[in-house]
Amino acid sequence: MGFPRFAWSVVAALTAGISAAVLVLAVGLAQGDATRPSAESLGPGGMGALASAASADYVGSAACASCHAGEAKAWRASQHAKAMAIVGPETVLGDFGDVTVEHRGAKARFYRDGPRYMVETEGRDGKTAAFEVTHTFGVAPLQQYLVTFPDGRLQALPFAFDTRPKDKGGQRWFHLYPDQPMPSSDPLHWTRSQQNWNFMCAECHSTDVRKGYDAATDTYHTTFSEISVGCESCHGAGAGHAAWAAKGADPKVAGKGFGTVAAPRPKPDWTPDPSTGSPARGVARQPGDEVETCARCHARRGTLSEDWHPGRPLTDTHMPSLLSEGLFEDDGQMRDEVFNDHLFKQSLMYAKGVVCSDCHDPHSAKLKADGAQVCAQCHLPERFATPAHTGHPPGKSGEKTPDCISCHMPARTYMVVDPRHDHSFRIPRPDLSVAFGTPNACTDCHADKSASWAAAAVERWHGPNRKGHQTWTEAVHRARAGEPAARDMLLKLAAEPTVPGIAKATILSELRRFPSLATETAATKALADPDPMVRIAALRSLAGAPLETRWRRASDLLADPVAAVRMEAAILVADQPLAGRPEGEKTRLEAAFAAYEAAQRLNADRPEGRANLANFLLRRGQPAAAEAELRAGLALEPEATPLAVNLADLYRAQGREAEAEQVLRQAIAVAPQAAAPRYALGLALIRQRRYADAIEQLAAAAKLAPEDARYAYVLAVALQSTGQAAEARQVVAEALKRNPYDPQLLTLALQDAMQARDAARAGPLAQKLSEMNPDDPEIARLAARLRRP
Known about the structure:
CATH 1.25.40; 35 helices; two-stranded antiparallel sheet
């Protein structure tokens, strides 16, 4: 599973012999009583057909096999079919022969207790206890194990089993976070929310999952129709199709009995052009196509609704991430575990209309040809598998030589042993590594060489001009460094129709760092972009604008055809009163508000879901309800300090300063290394005129998070206000080394220079501020005046 730390801001049987069963992940599984299904009752390997009582239209994969024997055989051998199983001799690959493993103070003993598979390890209370392992999770190159708790939670153990052969380094237990100690207080501890199957994993490892979280009791009643990723995970509920087949398979019936199907693609012509070695033409792509089906699980995203079905765009039921810093490199390559969808959607292949099944068999999930031979379906080997293209002579027998995959799909290893190939199909750019520090495929292999060496080699082979579909690296890199020169680069990219939608949405997000009339114009234009992610990013660009402006520009998107866009518009205008609006507008508002609230309540088992809902309720004028949500979120995860900060701010707005201080001090006690509650406490103490204590807390926040310019700015202002000008000047100087383009820090430094009548120091500061604020004539005039000799 390999999750990151918190990221703030989840048929009745129509054929004979198939029974309608219900698998409920509740108390029975944890206690191992008679209500727990046995592996035998589920078919070979625990993979048989089940049907949820809430989803009688799901018939199970076994119902498909009689007509689709070849596809069923391929699926049974796939990792999809083994994505999850009930423990048993046929499914457990790990060594439970009384084996003890240790990791940075953590210890686990894996053993058998009769038919039960057990682990003895540290629980949530920090005490060692025995837990029954109830499910396997995955199969290769590692297998994880789940424990079911009486409240319906399934939690993933931190020790996984390396299922590779021993001569490949496998057949051993290992910890999924080898470089991190993992005490029971850590949100990544196996008993905590970041390792919870019901939210983090279930949707993509089982079929027709209904999370069934009860917020009132903080318990789960999760159900699924099939324990693994079955046929209906991709094709949708199959009862209608089974009935269609039983009635004679009338070809005139739309969708062959399925309620919906993935949008069809026009027949492509992938014949290579001899002059280029690649196909000359592409094919149109329809919303809700096959790629969107795969994206539901192969994308970094949050869940808005459980009502997915084929043919819907991902953004109708999920909120994908952008190519965000920390998740992706500046050029869009994968950094964190982001899966494949965001990468593929950056590629020229995606732009040309390629879909997943052009390269992968959809049932076995294997490549349609071995290794780089899969590329030869569309690209001429005689043009590309040559030293003239690769720069490498053919290797000797048994020697590894570069091929399409190693150069255009570099791998990065996740979960310690699981290499994943980047699916953006980019041209290797060691020159970008030299300039901006992004990875490149060349030095992945030539680890003993520098990026400069690789860049020079590529230039010798292909000349000085680099080509490529992904063209935003410099703009994004400079934007994240705060450089004003990035603004024009980003604006140009935002207007370029060939920039992939996911990249354009990210570019719009980066543009928010550079407010200007041109930025505002670009965001307004993007509200009509055909890509829903671009529209979502454009809506986010309006945050902070006056309500009249937000309403004028966003209200039409309350009726957008895509749910995620409607919800983004809803939160943007959440403070819009319903009273006095025309009936049509009121109806749209109410529908969008209800959908947004439902999405957050679906994720009420998460602190961030509670925080989002609290913010929405507060903006809707319901402070008591917002307070309840924040308190509930902190009960779920006391270390979720942003919720404590929000709760304290709510108390501040209500004049409840003592309660605000109490909440913040509790947050500091629980998470002493978190900067945000110390910063908020410093502000609270300033309001109470306790200046010395306030400066102590503000200084602690600035030290804990030196990358956050705001903390340094407020500390410097506080020092200035208490007569400590020299100390304030030092804070600003140090912070500007880390944040040289922060406008607030620059303003403080400029004010200090002007007061000291130091024109030599003031001139460059004013020039930087003018570049950061191109629409401010006053700062432009000051900069010009200071430039004069």
